[in-house]
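User: Sequence in, structure out. Go.
Assistant: Echoing your sequence, followed by the structure tokens.
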Amino acid sequence: MHMLHYVTITSQGQITIPAEIRRELGLSAQKKAIVTIEQNQIVIKPGRDILELEGVFKTKKKIPYKKIREAFGVYLAKRHLKSLK
């Protein structure tokens, strides 16, 4: 099902994703989204939070969640930049 919504772009380049689309994709204020350009279009996809992977990797090290999120964000950004080359 394709939904068509017109949104306004603010002077700071921000848009509001309509509530119907946010509900459909499970996006909320606490969630992350991945924004890319594909075939000359802006594509917004739900992003997985690093905390969803809790328990997947076993370690005895205790690392603050904030540092994990920051490091994961840097990793994703670098990976995306590499894919553009």
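User: And one key feature?
Assistant: The chain has two domains: 1-47, 49-85.
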